[in-house]
Amino acid sequence: MWRPRRGAYDHGVLTGEMVLLRARRDEDVAVLHADLYDDVVTRSRADSRPWRPWPSAIDSPYAPSAPTGPGDAAIFTIMTRDGDEVAGEGLLWGIDQHSRLAHIGVSLRPVMRGRGLGGDTVQVLCRYGFVVRGFHRLQVDTLAGNHAMIRAAERCGFVLEGTMRRSAWVLGEFLDEVVLGLLAEDWQDTQDV
């Protein structure tokens, strides 16, 4: 059983081997908006809602907001381990308190991809979901061509459960999505206790 090691939860920050996850701050918005929202291809592939122009980062979808209920998404800014640079966003969404399940989402800035930060973020989100929130199941829904997310999830123990054929409308075509799931009893934390 995982027990919090010293520093695993420091002042509202969840730590991994390479990342820190903390609450979204106002100063994160411009970077996240520019690199994750204004990039039409990235945003269209990461979100089922259609991309639309957003006039400024002032009222950006990345603007921080306080949770209003237990089913609200848990949204984190991903920071590099030294805390110097915003790497992206991680979240638990689609939270179902009754069935004790949630979906994991990770979106990294283009300059942060390929460094292993996504896999570390998935592991930290699993720890948060299973240990802190007490979920029974976590799920990843992603495009079948999102090999980086699929690899990151599988390294954390997620199992491919199925393919939803041509279920996502992305930039003018229907694409397959895959569903990966992980149960609390099958999860293994990779960090030292």
Summarize the structure in words.
By secondary structure, this protein is α+β, with helices and mostly antiparallel strands. It contains four helices and nine strands. The chain has helices at 29-37, 40-46, 117-132, 147-155, and strands at 9-10, 13-15, 19-23, 74-80, 86-96, 101-108, 137-143, 159-170, 173-183. Strands 1-2-3-4-5-6-7-9-8 form a nine-stranded mixed beta sheet, sandwiched between helices. A hairpin with a 3-residue loop joins β2 (13-15) and β3. It is globular and about 45 Å long. The model is unreliable at 1-7 (pLDDT under 50).
Describe the protein's topology.
Blueprint: E1 9-10, E2 13-15, E3 19-23, H1 29-37, H2 40-46, E4 74-80, E5 86-96, E6 101-108, H3 117-132, E7 137-143, H4 147-155, E8 159-170, E9 173-183
Parallel strand pairs: 6-7
Antiparallel strand pairs: 1-2, 2-3, 3-4, 4-5, 5-6, 7-9, 8-9
- Write out the strand line-up for the largest beta sheet, numbering strands in chain order: 1-2-3-4-5-6-7-9-8
By CATH, the topology of the domain at 9-135 is Aminopeptidase
| Approximate shape | globular
- Work out the helicity level: 10-25%
Number of helices: 4
Separation of the first and last Cα atoms: 9 Å
- Secondary-structure-based class equals alpha+beta
Q: Low-confidence parts, pLDDT < 50 over ≥5 residues?
A: 1-7
CATH architecture of the domain at 9-135: 3-Layer(aba) Sandwich
Overall pLDDT: 91
Order of helices and strands: EEEHHEEEHEHEE
Radius of gyration: 16 Å
